[in-house]
Design brief:
single chain; alpha/beta; Ribulose 1,5 Bisphosphate Carboxylase/Oxygenase; 4-stranded antiparallel sheet; 3-stranded parallel sheet
Length: 228
């Protein structure tokens, strides 16, 4: 543990805590200060001036990053009838109806995302206590409750990410891997920033994005300059 601490301390020395960096500089520095031996994730953390206790300030949605996340998501589609074949053709990893719900009830979670057709939400709702805490409950706002299961599956496979503000006003999201070219990470960052900026609630007065940080899985945070 001490060895890890020393590496982190050395890496952190390269980051000037008193300044903010352009996104290109921040990406470069985050990669340089990565101390993991594996291909670590590159993450963005937003601190927003919102109060999520108010319904009109709950920021939630999904988007497809231009270059994906570098992580392959396993998709489980809960549907019946012709939509089953549509989901399979689109590349879903698991497709089915009540039999899959029974498996989940018994503790099967070998997937990352659930997509469901609206007619299955009544059955899925019964598993809310299992799926809710894991963040797996499908939601129309993130495009995971839909009749267009093919598009939903394709988007997720391309690198769709879901964002949601927590009760402290933070949003944390993966935008790629350390192995990505800097330009791809910058593109992904800018696409995400645009979406979060557009989601600004009308009730928010003054500064909306209070703090913006890029980091790798085990590396120090690098503050990014927020353009006014």
């Amino acid at each position: 543990m001490a060895k890890f601490g020393k590496k982190y301390v050395e890496a952190a020395k390269k980051v000037d805590r008193t300044k903010t960096y352009s996104v290109a500089e921040a990406v470069k520095l985050a990669k340089e200060t990565n101390i993991a031996k594996f291909d670590a994730s590159v993450e963005v953390s937003f601190k927003l001036n919102v109060d999520p206790r108010h319904a009109d300030q709950q920021i939630r949605g999904a988007m497809v990053l231009p270059h994906g996340t570098g992580k392959t998501q396993k998709v489980c589609v809960i549907t019946q009838g012709p939509k089953e074949q549509e989901a399979k053709d689109a590349g879903a990893d698991f497709v089915g109806g009540k039999e899959l719900l029974e498996d989940i009830q018994k503790g099967w979670f070998d997937f990352d995302v659930i997509v469901a057709t609206p007619n299955m939400m009544g059955e899925l709702g019964k598993l809310g206590r299992l799926l809710g805490p894991k963040g797996l409950m499908p939601n129309p706002k993130t495009g995971t409750v839909t009749m267009d299961v093919a598009k939903a599956v394709e988007d997720i496979k391309k690198g769709k990410v879901e964002y949601r503000v927590d009760k402290e006003g933070n949003i944390n999201l993966m935008i790629g891997k350390v192995s990505f070219d800097d330009e791809k990470l910058v593109d992904n960052f800018n696409a995400l920033l645009k979406v979060i900026s557009k989601a600004r609630p009308a009730a928010v007065k003054g500064t909306y994005i209070k703090n913006l940080v890029i980091s790798t899985t085990m590396g120090p945070g690098v503050k990014v300059t927020v353009e006014k």
